[in-house]
Amino acid sequence: xxxxxxxxxxxxxxxxxxxxSKNAALPxxxxxxxxxxxxxxxxxxxxxxxxxxxxxxxxxxxxxxxxSGAAEVKPAGQLNPEAPYDLxxxxxxxxxxxxxxxxxxxxxxxxxxxxxxxxxxxxxxxLTALEKMGARFDLDSGYIEGKTSGLHGAKIVFDQVTVGGxxxxxxxxxxxxxxxxxxxxxxEPEVVDLAxxxxxxxxxxxxxxxxVIRIEGVESLSGCRYPIMSDRIEAGTYLVAAAMTGGELTxxxxxxxxxxxxxxxxxxxxxxxxxxxxxxxxxxxxxxKCMDVTTIPYPGFPTDMQAxxxxxxxxxxxxxxxxxxxxxxxxxxxxxxxxxxxxxKVSSQSxxxxxxxxxxxxxxxxxxxxxxxxxxxxxxxxxGVTEVQRIYHLDRGYEAMEVKLQALGAxxxxxxx
Length: 417
Ligand code: EPZ
Fold this sequence. Notes:
By secondary structure, the protein is an alpha/beta fold. It has helices spanning 22-30, 48-59, 85-88, 98-105, 124-132, 163-174, 189-200, 232-245, 260-269, 306-314, 332-339, 369-381, 392-395, 401-407; strands at residues 2-7, 13-17, 39-42, 62-67, 70-75, 82-83, 107-111, 136-140, 143-147, 155-157, 179-183, 204-206, 212-216, 225-227, 248-252, 272-276, 279-283, 293-295, 319-324, 343-347, 350-354, 363-365, 385-389, 411-416. The protein has two domains: 2-19 and 230-416, Alpha-beta prism (UDP-n-acetylglucosamine1-carboxyvinyl-transferase, Chain), CATH 3.65.10.10; 22-227, Alpha-beta prism (UDP-n-acetylglucosamine1-carboxyvinyl-transferase, Chain), CATH 3.65.10. The protein has 14 helices and 24 strands. A hairpin with a 2-residue loop joins strand 20 (343-347) and strand 21 (350-354). The site of ligand EPZ has 23 residues, from helix 1, helix 5, helix 6 and helix 12.
């Protein structure tokens, strides 16, 4: 396993290009299952999860390949309905093949993803909604077995906002008979990107980006050439890194229109963020101060930025409370930040952070994707050397992070653990 060795204390300066969004690319790649003809995606990030998804698409019977920032997927004869456990256990988003397989093939056998570091992450909302469209499910030795004689439109009200659930249902409804209405639907920009992709393939969808989405099923969908949106979470991570190290960065390809809540909170803390014609310029400005943060579904503050803003608050003045309302166990980074000298007290779903003057470098352990990112940005500002272990978590969602940071002046290198 690899680790990152970081010598902290150097300000980041320069320009960084934001990569394509992992959380937009994954559902859009699974939507390839719905298509009658080849599709090309551009601005695809080179990430572990992308390669896992392409591997799974090949197992399902498609021809999927990746070549320097672009992916191509071609239908190749008979689809195979089974998504095997050894792949699904490495990437929970594999459950997003469920809706497309049922819509296209009338059957699916998908390993139950199981929990992960940040929570149980059940898929009950996906299954209940798909049952309303005419699917039936059995649970057989750790696999979800789904069957349908043909999906039909339905009115679905989600008990709680679910990004993956909304995405699975969008894909299932695109080829179903009749109209499907999704209420209390997720409004995340990545859900909108998926809807825009499906529309580019011939789907009839309105209301995406609002809590009520309407989908009129069509006979078939055909491939196109589609650019994946930029990654608002990667961009937010670099904003935090610039603020923490006291440098100045220009972010190219930043999806500013999808980042209001992040910009607003960082500006409240004292971060200077200016939208310029050739990119987004960010620098610390004066002293940073802690603010209260609550993670909620889009357009609220994103849970995927919670660990990163906590790291920033650890070295800001005053104190603030972070409430995590989306996942039940998303404070795994707290213990590791405390090893670096952070002052954090957790009780139930809240973390009370009191800023300290400096963090101190230490060996720390990554536990999940965004926790790893928060440990890296903490290491960039800490006094001394930080070793972040098990960074395969980081490689799932950040394209060449140490390479991008080296180009910005950070003293960071990858080594074998
Ligand atoms: C997506 O996960 C993202 N992953 C997550 O990003 C992100 O944190 C999350 O949305 C919330 O924004 C991808 O897009 C690949 P949910 P998803 O369904 O779809 C509960 C990252 O770091 N729930 O919106 O799994 C669930 O347990 C990752 O990039 C049910 O109870 O999230 C959670 O508490 C982490 N039953 C809440 O809803 C269900 O059937 C939100 O989950 C589905 C979800």
